[in-house]
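About this split. The held-out portion is used to measure sequence recovery: a designer receives only the structure tokens and must propose an amino acid at every position. Recovery is the fraction of positions where the proposal matches the reference. Here is one held-out target exactly as it appears in the evaluation file.
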């Protein structure tokens, strides 16, 4: 019985002693394989020299001889930090943007630029400052999408040698000084008042024209003025008022004019 227990313990200790070596062996074997996901590409280097691009799936490599740098091909979102820019009409504005881009040539993204994320952000920041200096504040506020499209084309063209495609660019926040905000509010209020005056004057002109046409029609139709007078009297009679109205025939007034 004692011999059996000793044999079991010996086997257990042997396995326990062998487990670390087994794990090291499995780890060493695992170093010969590299798994690349569907949305990734692996840039393979052999002693520091570009040796090819690994596709999705299980790839065999040689440890210590090969090195793999994985590049994500999915759409990437990058925020251009907020900065103060000066417009063409010398107005300081705080503005930031968001760049949507993806890597379409992973070899260039690794070999031609050290950190493509940092490079895209910095170039976008510089381009935003340069373009803002070529336009006025009114253009910046009213032509926001056109300016964003122009910036996208500029950044996309500059980053093409890095294997980058800029898909979309948005101007996120545009902040103007508080003093300028108050001035713009006063200008907007003055513009609203000006439009209200124009609309009111146009209404007065139209009303006077209609009254002139009505007077011409009434004057040209025999008895029309008398009918209009009777209608007015009827309207006044139906209204509850303490006013006393005296009706003087038009012929009487004309008689007084002839006497004078």
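Reference sequence for scoring:
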């Amino acid at each position: 019985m004692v011999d059996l227990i000793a044999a079991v313990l010996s086997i257990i200790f042997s396995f326990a002693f062998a487990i670390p070596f087994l794990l090291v062996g499995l780890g060493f074997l695992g170093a010969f394989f590299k798994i690349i996901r569907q949305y990734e590409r692996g840039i393979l280097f052999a002693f520091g020299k570009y040796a090819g691009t690994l596709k999705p799936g299980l790839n065999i490599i040689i440890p210590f001889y090969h090195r793999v740098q994985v590049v994500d091909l999915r759409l990437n979102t990058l925020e251009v930090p907020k900065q103060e820019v000066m417009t063409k009409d010398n107005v300081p504005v705080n503005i930031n943007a968001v760049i949507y881009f993806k890597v379409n040539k992973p070899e260039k993204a690794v070999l031609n630029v050290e950190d493509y994320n940092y490079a895209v952000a910095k170039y976008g920041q510089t381009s935003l400052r340069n373009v803002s200096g070529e336009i006025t504040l009114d253009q910046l506020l009213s032509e926001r999408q056109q300016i964003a499209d122009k910036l996208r084309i500029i950044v996309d063209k500059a980053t093409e040698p890095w294997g980058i495609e800029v898909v979309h660019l948005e101007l996120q926040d545009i902040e103007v000084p508080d003093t300028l905000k108050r001035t713009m509010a006063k200008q907007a209020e003055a513009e609203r008042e000006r439009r209200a005056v124009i609309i009111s004057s146009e209404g007065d002109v139209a009303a006077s024209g209609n009254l002139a046409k009505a007077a011409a029609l009434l004057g040209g139709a025999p008895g029309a003025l008398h009918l209009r007078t009777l209608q007015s009297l009827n309207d006044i009679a139906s209204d509850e008022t303490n006013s006393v109205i005296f009706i003087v025939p038009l012929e009487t007034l004309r008689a007084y004019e002839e006497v004078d």
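Annotator remark: Helices lie at 2-30, 106-111, 116-132, 137-142, 144-159, 178-220, 224-238, 250-259.
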